[in-house]
Amino acid sequence: MDFIQVGKITNTHGIKGEIKVYPLTDDINRFEKLKNLYIGDKKVKVTIEKTWYQKNLVILKFKEYNNINEVEVYKNEYLYIDEKDKISLPDDTYFIFDIIGCKVIDTNNNEIGIVTEVLTNISNDVYVVKDLHSHKEHLIPAVKQFVKKISIEEKKIVIEPIEGLIE
């Protein structure tokens, strides 16, 4: 079974076993549609009993836990879904976990580096690309003006950089 990271447990909430989750998904409301999650590296399966929101966090109550002491051990653990439960994306839209690790080349087939991170808290996504030779990081806006082709199957992104974008 393959898993996809969807959130990080940041803290407990109250005394009845609820947890605060920082969502790692574009659609925070998708937690309401989920039935099961898997916690941490051991992938402990839990059933979602209740979901609500507080600012930019998701509060979850799992059927299996009823007090703070039972869930405290999960602080800073990641939450996962089974890959079969992932949502379908529109064309030309990709999961962040699919973009990370892609090799980036320019339209002349020159290697730029590897995507190590995707910044999402701005007007458009930005790919952080690490040059494996110089160890410099390049910030590539994820817009059609620069990104010409993405092949998740080949783990490859082709860009057409303007002068000064890659130095």
From TrEMBL:
<dbReference type="InterPro" id="IPR056792">
    <property type="entry name" value="PRC_RimM"/>
</dbReference>
<feature type="domain" description="Ribosome maturation factor RimM PRC barrel">
    <location>
        <begin position="97"/>
        <end position="165"/>
    </location>
</feature>
<dbReference type="GO" id="GO:0005840">
    <property type="term" value="C:ribosome"/>
</dbReference>
<dbReference type="InterPro" id="IPR009000">
    <property type="entry name" value="Transl_B-barrel_sf"/>
</dbReference>
<dbReference type="InterPro" id="IPR011033">
    <property type="entry name" value="PRC_barrel-like_sf"/>
</dbReference>
<keyword id="KW-0143">Chaperone</keyword>
<dbReference type="Pfam" id="PF24986">
    <property type="entry name" value="PRC_RimM"/>
</dbReference>
<keyword id="KW-0698">rRNA processing</keyword>
<comment type="subunit">
    <text>Binds ribosomal protein uS19.</text>
</comment>
<keyword id="KW-0963">Cytoplasm</keyword>
<dbReference type="InterPro" id="IPR011961">
    <property type="entry name" value="RimM"/>
</dbReference>
<dbReference type="GO" id="GO:0006364">
    <property type="term" value="P:rRNA processing"/>
</dbReference>
<dbReference type="InterPro" id="IPR036976">
    <property type="entry name" value="RimM_N_sf"/>
</dbReference>
<feature type="domain" description="RimM N-terminal">
    <location>
        <begin position="5"/>
        <end position="84"/>
    </location>
</feature>
<keyword id="KW-0690">Ribosome biogenesis</keyword>
<dbReference type="GO" id="GO:0042274">
    <property type="term" value="P:ribosomal small subunit biogenesis"/>
</dbReference>
<dbReference type="GO" id="GO:0043022">
    <property type="term" value="F:ribosome binding"/>
</dbReference>
<protein>
    <recommendedName>
        <fullName>Ribosome maturation factor RimM</fullName>
    </recommendedName>
</protein>
<dbReference type="GO" id="GO:0005737">
    <property type="term" value="C:cytoplasm"/>
</dbReference>
<comment type="similarity">
    <text>Belongs to the RimM family.</text>
</comment>
<dbReference type="InterPro" id="IPR002676">
    <property type="entry name" value="RimM_N"/>
</dbReference>
<dbReference type="Pfam" id="PF01782">
    <property type="entry name" value="RimM"/>
</dbReference>
<comment type="function">
    <text>An accessory protein needed during the final step in the assembly of 30S ribosomal subunit, possibly for assembly of the head region. Essential for efficient processing of 16S rRNA. May be needed both before and after RbfA during the maturation of 16S rRNA. It has affinity for free ribosomal 30S subunits but not for 70S ribosomes.</text>
</comment>
